Amino acid sequence: MKRLAVVAVLVAAAVALFVAGRNAAAEPLRTSTTGTRYAATVLIEEPVTGRVSMEVVVDSGDADTVAVSAVMPEMGHSTPEITAREQRPGRFLAEGELFSMSGVWDVSLRLDGPAGEEQLIVKALISDR
Amino acid sequence: MIRLLCLVAVLLLAMAAPAAAHNVTAGADLRIAQTIAGAELTVVIKGTSRVPGPLRIGVVAYEPVTPLRIGLRVRSVEDGRTVTGTAEAAPRDPRYTQLTVTRTGPHELTLRAGDEVAVIPFRVLVERGSAGDFLIYGGLFLAGTLLVGGVLTGGLARRGTAMLLAGGAAAGVTVAAMVVVFEQALPAPPPDGAAPTAATPVGGRPFAQGKVATVPDRPAEGEEFTLRLDLVDGSTGRPVDDLAVHHEAIAHVVVTSEDGRYFRHVHPLRTAPGRLEVRLRADRPGRYFAHAEVERQDSGGQLLTGAFTVHPAGDPAGESIQAAAAAPRLRPAAPVAGRPATIELDAPGDVRPWLGMTGHLLVRSQDGAFMGHVHEMGTPGSPLRFTFSFPEPGRYLAWAQYATADRIVTAPFTVDVAAAGSAR
């Protein structure tokens, strides 16, 4: 009978861990957005507070420059714009401190090119480092 | 132990994310009132239970209830895929136009009527199968299988194996039972396409600042003009583009002339991020007030105000059509400031809900500094009943509104409120 109880408790514990663990850990962020002039995908390998590297892939439209800034709507925080470096045609890398605290941020991409300027916004869930 | 479990349950409930606005899920329609092409409409978006799947959009006409063709365009913000259709506004039970959405997540609905365009952002959500269900059925299936095995091996007198199988069966039943009991307390997985939510939402967002303007800036009497409301976040300076749908609209705007003879309760169109616009025509020159009720997501509501002037035209417009003053019953007959007063109005039998309520009462102080929006709280079929505590003594201008089968009725009247202690 004891063995039976032990097995039941172990299985229940494993199940609890499975359920609780599903939402943990910051996963890499990958999200796409399209506007009228440009379409872009944002990739953040480690979406955490502090210094981050953010890759912006311009999926459509010919963007010459990409600048990235962020706003945390819940708190009213906003961070200065970071100009992204074009690494390869259509691939830009922005590095710097964008997210001062964990939570949901609006990442705004300001794309500029021959077609004109457009601002696109994607949501990002940022975890503590 | 029970206390600990209760605590865990309470914590899990408290951590559950608040409902986000503008979400379209199966079984939860998104209803948004819009004042477009001179008509007062409510756009209904019905959710889908799968993607690719059908997204059904209908338009209910409140005033006028004449047929109006609305162009629809649904665009996925993530991949830019666009589908179009048209909807015919109908007074009741609209014919739903079926469009196909291929993915969940952020979308935009563009409405087009005449030369007016509104862009409504929304999210298509599809419920995911819950892990709890999987565990309940998985646990019971395991228990059943093992019990049969246990009985068979027991019959064959293999005691150790039988015990092991019986133990497994007990574990299966335990898991299923635990999940059945605690499933309500466990956070449901977010639906597919949901906006990310923080584990500990802060609750409340900064104030929105509203700037009221007219286009042209000097509207003339009788001439159509656009009333524009630009919303700016007070903390970041960015446009406020996160308005929640409350009482079936992203903004309720009440425009009144200073003397109260002109009254419109309209639902402006979102024409750009942070910009709301509605077309109006004022029939008399003078000063006008605009009071806008808005609510940011995860926040409380707030009232934004502004004023503008309508200039006399060279060719004066005809006499304005003034609605006959209503004769409400007040209880107490002389309302006292700071105490609840009840206002009763007779209404015809064919009143239908509008903006989610049977009736609305808009109350403005004479100087325009105060605006209240009260909801009808009576029982169906009886007179409309509103209860409100007028904050200060003085004369208030009031307009009761309700929708009948063919129009929106606005009944204007005034309420004189006495100071507390002055009543003898």
What structural class do helix, strand and pairing data of chain A support? alpha+beta
> Portion of residues in helices of chain A?
10-25%
Number of helices of chain A: 1
CATH topology-level name of the largest domain in chain B: Immunoglobulin-like
Keywords (chain A): Signal
Protein name (chain A): YtkA-like domain-containing protein
Signal peptide (chain A): 1-25
Signal peptide (chain B): 1-21
List the helices and strands and how they pair.
The complex is a heterodimer of chains A (129) and B (424).
Chain A: H1 2-21, E1 29-34, E2 39-44, E3 50-60, E4 65-72, E5 77-83, E6 85-88, E7 91-99, E8 103-113, E9 116-126
Chain B: H1 2-15, E1 23-24, E2 30-36, E3 39-46, E4 53-63, E5 68-76, E6 82-89, E7 97-101, E8 105-113, E9 116-124, H2 131-155, H3 159-182, E10 208-215, E11 224-233, E12 251-257, E13 263-266, E14 269-272, E15 275-281, E16 286-295, E17 301-310, E18 329-331, E19 340-345, E20 360-365, E21 371-375, E22 384-389, E23 394-403, E24 408-417
Parallel strand pairs in B: 1-9
Antiparallel strand pairs in B: 2-3, 3-4, 4-7, 5-6, 5-8, 8-9, 10-11, 11-15, 12-13, 12-16, 14-15, 16-17, 18-19, 19-22, 20-21, 20-23, 23-24
Helix pairs in contact in B: 2-3
Keywords:
heterodimer, A: 129 residues, alpha+beta, Immunoglobulin-like, five-stranded antiparallel beta sheet, B: mainly beta, 4 domains, 24 strands
Please characterize this protein's 3D structure:
Chain A: It comes from Nonomuraea terrae. The complex is a heterodimer of chains A (129) and B (424). Chain A has 129 residues and is an alpha+beta fold. Chain A has a single domain (26-126), classed as Immunoglobulin-like, CATH 2.60.40. Chain A has one helix spanning 2-21, and strands at 29-34, 39-44, 50-60, 65-72, 77-83, 85-88, 91-99, 103-113, 116-126. In chain A, strands 1-2-3-7-6 form a five-stranded antiparallel sheet, with no helix packed on it. Chain A is elongated and about 75 Å long. Chain A starts with a helix and ends with a strand. With 424 residues, chain B is mainly β. Chain B has four domains: 23-124, Periplasmic metal-binding protein Tp34-type (Immunoglobulin-like); 131-182; 208-310, Immunoglobulin-like, CATH 2.60.40; 329-417, Sandwich (Immunoglobulin-like), CATH 2.60.40. In chain B, the strands form six sheets. A five-stranded mixed sheet of chain B has the order 1-9-8-5-6, with no helix packed on it. In chain B, helix 2 (131-155) runs antiparallel to helix 3 (159-182). Chain B is elongated and about 105 Å long. Chains A and B meet through helix 1, strand 1 and strand 9 of A and helix 2 and helix 3 of B.
